[in-house]
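Quick one, probably user error.
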């Protein structure tokens, strides 16, 4: 299956291929033709499945295919909002806005995002200039509605992204008030990580003859990857990492940190300690990344420190060691991270250096993968603060934790397929990160 065969126009195909995507993900395969045909959609799919491109690409194409009903006023520069995408958090809204901008790069459509926690004035100015696609969190959108700085009477497509999370956050009443302002005749797309009874009820009231799509979670690490947790005190993490690399004579190790700054600092420190290391993250330009990767592959550099985002486009065959220097904030990233090793059936080892304050994150990961990762103290690095994971409830880490995880029984996630598209497409991709920044 190719993007071409899904019926997308050349401008979108160009943007997609520039992102390095060689084939559509399962949700994209199913959602794109459905949305292009103008149908409503209910998709059970979470972050990491490619859902954003799955609804953004056909949405852009539909807007372009049908001229705006209010088109005659265009010469005055006024453009009505024709597609409204509601998202639970500002982080997600900003991400979706970036995706819309990326995939719509070669189309004459305008988009912006409005969300809380930032000054409303620039948002008002953006809205006044006119946008075709508006990404919004419900609360801030309602502020705009009340201030009459947005007009929703021309919305043709409504997208509810991470709808379960919006319900969890108590947005249902606001969402209903907003939806009441939209034209009745429109296309509705509902995306949700979990399809609970509440979501079904919402869908029933909202969707007309929807196409249903359910995409399996990304939850099972490859079996040929051994996983290990080394409990350690936070302030001894770096020392432990250096010890492991030297002691076990790792020649090629990919180390994950959460932040760009942390990646850079760690790489510098390791390098100064005589372990050839370099960092790859969103602040590095394409040349720097390419060079870092080439040095790593050739063995000139022994340790590559990366953030999650920067690591996504990395194409490294036969990577024997992956280290989680810090655990990721969302459990799925753990699966993605350790999926960098053990490719093509080769053996791989994934080691996580976990401090006591990360116990909840570890519990989330273990719940997702459906098994406990063995703990092993490294002699000389036994932590003073014990690592205790007693079925932590999670959900306390603000915007980053993904909905659905906590309700998910461990055994359910077992044995689900690892999405093959991720591997194949990543292997063909250049060393570029899609969003090219953050984390
Ligand atoms: P999402 O589920 O929308 O958050 O997307 C997860 C990640 O997959 C994002 O970093 C996308 O850039 C990436 N992605 C989306 N579609 C594809 C594709 N067809 N091939 C490879 N990566 C993709």
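Nope, works fine. Designed sequence:
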């Amino acid at each position: 299956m190719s993007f071409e065969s899904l019926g997308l126009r050349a401008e979108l195909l160009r943007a997609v291929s520039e992102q390095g995507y060689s084939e559509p993900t399962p949700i994209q395969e199913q959602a794109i033709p459905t949305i292009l045909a103008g149908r409503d959609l209910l998709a059970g799919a979470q972050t990491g499945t490619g859902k954003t491109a799955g609804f953004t690409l056909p949405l852009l194409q539909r807007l372009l295919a049908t001229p705006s009903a209010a088109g005659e006023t265009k010469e005055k520069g006024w453009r009505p909002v024709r597609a409204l995408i509601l998202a639970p958090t500002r982080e997600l809204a900003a991400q979706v806005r970036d995706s819309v901008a990326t995939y719509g790069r070669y189309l004459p459509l305008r988009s912006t995002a409005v969300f809380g926690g930032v000054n409303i004035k620039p948002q008002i100015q953006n809205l006044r200039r006119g946008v075709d696609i508006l990404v919004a969190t419900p609360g801030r959108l309602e502020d705009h509605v009340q201030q009459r700085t947005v007009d929703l009477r021309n919305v043709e497509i409504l997208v509810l992204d991470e709808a379960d999370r919006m319900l969890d956050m108590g947005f249902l009443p606001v969402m209903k008030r907003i939806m009441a302002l939209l034209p009745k005749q429109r296309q509705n797309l509902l995306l949700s990580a979990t399809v609970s009874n509440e979501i079904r009820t919402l869908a029933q009231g909202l969707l007309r003859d929807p196409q249903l799509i359910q995409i399996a979670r990304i939850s099972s690490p490859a079996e040929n990857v051994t996983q290990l947790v080394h409990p350690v005190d936070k302030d001894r993490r770096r020392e432990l990492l250096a010890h492991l690399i030297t002691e076990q004579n790792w020649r090629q190790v990919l180390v994950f940190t959460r932040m760009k700054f942390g990646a850079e600092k760690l790489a510098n420190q390791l390098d100064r300690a005589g372990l050839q290391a370099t960092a790859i993250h969103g602040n590095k330009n394409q040349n720097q990344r390419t060079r870092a990767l080439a040095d790593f592959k050739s063995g000139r550099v022994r340790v590559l420190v990366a953030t999650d985002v920067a690591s996504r486009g990395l194409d490294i065959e036969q990577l024997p060691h992956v280290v989680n220097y810090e655990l990721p904030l969302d459990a799925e990233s753990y699966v993605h991270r350790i999926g960098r090793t053990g490719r093509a059936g080769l053996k791989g080892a994934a080691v996580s250096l976990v401090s006591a304050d990360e116990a909840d994150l570890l519990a989330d990961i273990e719940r997702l993968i459906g098994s406990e990762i063995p703990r092993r103290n490294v002699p000389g690095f036994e932590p003073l603060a014990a690592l205790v994971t007693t079925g932590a409830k999670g959900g306390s880490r603000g915007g980053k934790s993904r909905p659905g995880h906590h309700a998910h029984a461990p055994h359910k996630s077992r044995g689900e397929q690892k999405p093959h598209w991720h591997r194949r497409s990543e292997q063909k991709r250049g060393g570029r990160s899609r969003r090219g920044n953050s984390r």
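The chain has two domains: 4-214, 225-428.
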